[in-house]
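Dear support,

I submitted the protein below through the web form. The confirmation email said the job was done, but the results page showed an empty box. After a refresh the structure appeared. I'm attaching both so you can tell me whether what I see now is the final result or a partial one.
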Amino acid sequence: MRFPLQPSLGTVLAILTCLQAFGVYIYLKGFLLTRQTLNIRGYSRTPWDRLPLSSASSPVVLPSIPSGYAFNRTIIIVIDALRFDFSVHSNHTDHYLNKLPVIQRLLDTRPQSSLLFQFRADPPTTTMQRIKGLMTGSLPTFIDVGSNFASSEVQEDHLLHHVKQRYNNIYFMGDDTWVHLYPDVFDQPDRTFDSDSFKMLDLDSVDDSILSHLWPLMASDNWELAVAHFLGVDHCGHTHGPSHPNMARKLDQMNTVIERILDQVDNNTLFILMGDHGMSPEGDHGGESLEELMSTLFIHSGRPLGLGSHPEPQENTYYRHLFERVHDARMNKLGYDIKAISERLRYDASSYPVVAQVNLVPTLSYLLQVPIPFGNLGAIIPDLLLPDKPSNNKIYNLLHIVGQFRINALQVYDYLIHYSQQTRQPDFSTTQLGPILKHLYDADNIMSELASQASFTTYLDNITILPEDQQEQFINSIEQALFEYDAFLIGTIQYCESIWAQFDAGSMLLGIVLLGLSVVVSMLSMNIEITCNRLLYSTLFMVPVFFALQPFTITLWQHGWFEKMSYTDWLGVLFSFYMCCLFSSVTCLKTNPLSLDWGLTFMISLVQSFTLGSNSYVVWEDASVRYMLSALSILWFARNCLSTRHGLNLARVVQAAKEPLLFLIVVRLTSVTGQCREEQFPYCQYLHHDFLSFDSYSATFVSIGFIATVILVLFYSSLLLKRSVGKDRIPHNAYRLCGMVVAIRMVVEIHQSSIETATIWVMVPAVVRKILDVYLPRLVYALCVFISAYVVYQRSCYSKTQQGWVLLFIWSTMLAMLQRPLASLIILLSPWVVRLLSNGDQTSLLLRLTLLQFFGHHLFFVTGHQTTFTSLPWKAAFVGFDDMNYYGGMILVTLSTLAGYIISWIGWLVLLSKEASKRDIKQSLFLLILMQAAPTFLCAIFVFILRRHLMTWKIFAPRFLFQILLDIGAHLAANMLERMSA
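What the results page shows now:
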């Protein structure tokens, strides 16, 4: 049965876009999963409860050695982005070094009550995830990165919940992320003084607000817990980078604040200074480079902290050596590279213990004598364990330490068992956890064996005195149990890190199938003219297939597949399959043969797609793109030679080679700029924006020359636009005005980033700064939108080619404004490259379009971007805004990231409207979407295969998410190009 149906090209492209987006959605449902949180509260445990766990017999009884009395007051100071090398003495002279001398002074003068640790964050190093980890002791999941700008209440058990049960007077000041995450704790307006955390250009307002409330609070007696989260250091890093005079100023301020707080610290007060994450050399964070991971933890009190401060030197040495062995075992098991840390951050990392941030939770629970949160995975820090009556009796002291380790181990054990029972995930079955649980059982067996020895129990009761050899035997046994408990705790962290992302393999495979079908349908639709669909036949075919697959699907669901698929998801899948069947059952009245160029360009795109399965190619993708451009340029030259109708001679060969050669020169010249990935060091050397400054005569001369070059480019571009548009002066004048704003913004940015002139910017009147930072960028946004709408809806006044040129030039100014100065110049020059590629006949159109597509990919890298979270241009979110606007910032960051691709997509409009036939337009638009749909399909397969690969979350997953962004963007661009080319 036939129903006459002849969908337009726009309809077909819209359907394909929906199919592609739905396939991506289903795939991501299986890939980007959060761990399941358990709504169970932690409770107080005794050290030898259920001893031994491996036996169902009556529990063995051992005496519990109580800890010292809890602190009456605790003050937690969080300095956002406090990298560890900011806190220790250094022989180097960078602006961020040696600015916190109070820490080293206390370590030298009060070593018994001061402890300094390297505080290692768990990636991703975004503030919201770090605050959650610091209070829950849980590990972050990959998808939580996107929640950093939309913090929601923590539902699982956390330390602050238990602290609130014990302490009544809790105060908070600073980063409002804490209030969003823990509204049930910070719920009293007269004790909660939070500030907006996303005014990144403001270095002082949040810190000054904190101090205005902190000093009166410290002078009063009406507080028990105070939390202050300072943001100035982090904002200075984002704005200026770590090596800047403003960073020295902010760290000096923090040193003064710490000194003044320490004057209030007595024997009943615990002072904790920490950073939530580190800071990259550029001043950013969010990734997992060593600079971003290594933060600071400093703990101080008026009374001794831990057995390492034992008054007897011999005992002191023993406990310190024991704790060093514990830290060394943890670092070795977790793979902390001390040598790399020392080399990258230029301090002796072996001199300070490395502590995972999750370890703070059980440690604070011990110090404040509150229950450990139920979902904690951290291991207690041994240096801070101190019995209520420390003595020279090693067995007594060790029994207290191993008892606290067992409380920690019991809590983690209960969590694993409950998680396994509630989630029924195979990875958390008793069989899979067996090797980890063995450490816990072995430790319990050692302690139960000790408890069964009469000489051990009578010795603890002070009834008998043991010979030294038997004491050493007992000490060795307790130490062995201690390290077994620790191996269980660290093994659990390591295991959960490796398998925490619980992939729904069924959803991922279903998404791959849908993405593959979308590619097939795209190729079918491109090569045929659709006249009618066998609607009834397709429907009759789908019904039996649906019922036949039901038992198979149910069986897979029972084995953990498709567990994240909802009823509406299945309806969407069925509809997608139905649409694919409709497209595959079309009647072809006319077939459009594909050209050789189409096949060559698509094959080159496929070659590039297959490289996405190699971590080396992904890391060095910026270099591989240049090789692709070189190969395509050679093909362009060959096509120019073959299309010469009157035979070849030297003049015609030169003419054929002119444009490809000029294009290659542009690619080579622009390749000197970019941004290095962490994995590319030390083999990556790019020209950075730092050489543009007013710090010296030579640098100022270079910067003035750079600004003059920008002005010349804008002047010549305005002439090109005027020549392309004709008599209408509105777009021409708008471009000149936008270009003037871009040039002014470049001067301002170079001025702000220069060390010698940065302080002058503070003296500029606030109204002038507001105009330069907020109103001028908004003027560019408004003009860009207005001119775009003007030329699109004034079709009678402009040809399609003129529309393309106006859009290209006006959008280049807005996209340039969102980049750093050097990248801005490249974006402003990009219309010239489009003009170069527009020179040619129809025979080379597909090659030139493909060159333009890969040139957009090249622009992505040379404008300072990489497929990593660290390289995301967060500063673009504040161009035209003095405050964080969630949706506006998201749009600006996306525009800044995709600037090169947007230029290339608008360039397609110029080339297609200038010389393409209707058939060429159709094949070109399908080529555009296939050049992104095919890599997305293959990348999804690679990520599925490599989902347990060591580099999945660091390399493959960010590249896949970026590919999805390109895929959806290319489909939307194809739809808009079809509308404008119609």
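Response: this is the final, complete result; the empty box was a page-load delay. Residues 144-151 have pLDDT under 50 and may be disordered.
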